[in-house]
Amino acid sequence: MAWREQVAREKRAAFRDWDYWGRPVPGFGDPAARVYVLGLAPAAHGGNRTGRVFTGDRSGDWLFGSLHRTGFANQPASVSADDGLKLTGAFVAAAVRCAPPANKPRPAERDNCLPYAKKELELLPDLKAIVCLGAFAWDAAARLLEIRPKPKFGHGAELQVDGLTLIGSYHPSQQNTFTGKLTGQMLDDVFTRARAIADAG
Q1: CATH classification of 2-200, choosing from 3.40.1280.10, 3.40.470.10, 3.40.50.2300, 1.10.8.60?
Q2: SS3 letters across the chain
């Protein structure tokens, strides 16, 4: 919490004219969503700056580009909370709601934040699929749904539980996209699969 606020005060030079959000970042999207997209945490100079998860950072460029190509978003980019982005059939959130140092949240932060995701899931009665961006989100979803033993994470992994399908995807972080571990086609394939599950239900 203190670090998130420190980042908002000190800012990055490129964003010195921004009023940073600097608070917990809620999920957002379509209240009738059939697909819930769960990420890691707000980026220090992305969601922590803009107040909307995956907004204003490179991971968001990848995520919303793919959501646009697969019909879940009305535009391929998300730069600010008032940029006109609308999601249809999808809701996007993060397992941890405050930007963590080095983008590495502690287990205690995850556990403190999970009740917010749990409430979102309760408020989205039409859900058919949860896309987990990265192993951290996969683990968080397993905890949310009380799945034991914890299922093995992998890109494209699927698990059905309580009428929901969990789908694993590598996180669209620069570490994965710059190295080619995750390609645009791989991410599109995950959301195409999520759409097929949502439409079948």
Answers
A1: 3.40.470.10
A2: CHHHHHHHHHCCHHHCCCCCCCCCCCCEECCCCCEEEEECCCCCCCHHHHCCCCCCCHHHHHHHHHHHHCCCECCCCCCCCCCCCCECCEEEEECCCCCCHHHCCCHHHHHHHHHHHHHHHHCCCCCCEEEEECHHHHHHHHHHCCCCCCCCCCCCCEEEECCEEEEEECCCCHHHHCCCCCCHHHHHHHHHHHHHHHHHC
The tens-digit pLDDT sequence of the chain (201 residues) is: 565 567 666 766 766 787 889 899 999 999 999 999 999 999 988 999 999 999 999 999 999 999 999 999 999 999 999 999 999 999 999 999 999 887 789 888 888 999 999 999 999 999 999 999 999 999 999 999 999 998 999 999 999 998 999 999 999 999 999 999 999 999 999 999 999 999 996
What is the domain partition of the chain in residue ranges?
2-200
